[in-house]
Amino acid sequence: MSDLLNRLGYLQTRRDRTPNLDLARDLVARNDRAGIQEIAKNMWNENKNIHNDCVNVMYEIAAIDPDLVTQYGDDFIKLLKSRHQNMVQGAMFALAEIAKVKPDFTFKHLDVIRKAKETGSDILVDKSLTAIAYTAAANAEYTKSIFPDLLHDLSTCHHKEVPEHAERILPAVNENNKHEFIKVLEKRSNELSGSDYTRLNKLIRIVEKI
């Protein structure tokens, strides 16, 4: 086992993810592209614990500097089809960051991202929305194509999910579509109370200033 892989949480017999985060930070700080390539390669390691840790390291790298992982976008798309939910979730974390710097790539694979969103956990749904929203924000063509689906999600999701979903969608909101967005938020706000209501109305005030 290489010195790099020996720094993974699993190989240090650690149950927490601190070693993986430390490794990700170190690879980014040193701009160690060869090391990142080794981690990316081992996202397909036969040992499920190693490949799980490597996915974890990769999306932590993406969170710090997504440009360092864009070349592995195809790997993350393939992982969205995994039978293991934690792998799918980790891949979507990375894709949400990649969408911020390479939206053409996520737009190309939007159908796969949407399909994964419909079959996943709440966390996966949230990260999917982030990926889709940042893709939509890239240009007018993408906004026109994607924003109606984001509004549909906001109109139909469970009322408890509305504030979170609205915040995730916010990057795709602009001067041209903000009124549609506010209209949906105001309608959904009638279903909310307490902190959820306050949170949503705070967002409405933010959007009004766009």
Structural overview:
This protein has a domain at about 1-105: Leucine-rich Repeat Variant (Alpha Horseshoe), CATH 1.25.10.10. About 70% of the residues lie in helices and about 0% in strands. It is built from 12 helices and no strands. The longest helix has 17 residues, at about 50-65. The mean pLDDT is about 95.
Which fold name is given in CATH as the topology of the domain at 1-106?
Answer: Leucine-rich Repeat Variant
Q: Beta-strand level of the residues, as a percent range?
A: under 5%
Q: Classify the secondary structure makeup into a structural class.
A: mainly alpha
Global mean pLDDT: 94
Total helices: the number is 12
Please write the string of helix (H) and strand (E) elements: HHHHHHHHHHHH
The helix content, as a percent range, equals 55-70%
CATH class term of the domain at 1-106: Mainly Alpha
Distance between the termini: 52 Å
Shape: elongated
Low-confidence stretches: none
- The overall strand count is 0
CATH architecture of the domain at 1-106: Alpha Horseshoe
Estimated radius of gyration: 19 Å
By CATH, the superfamily of the domain at 1-106 comes out as: Leucine-rich Repeat Variant
The largest β sheet comes out as: none
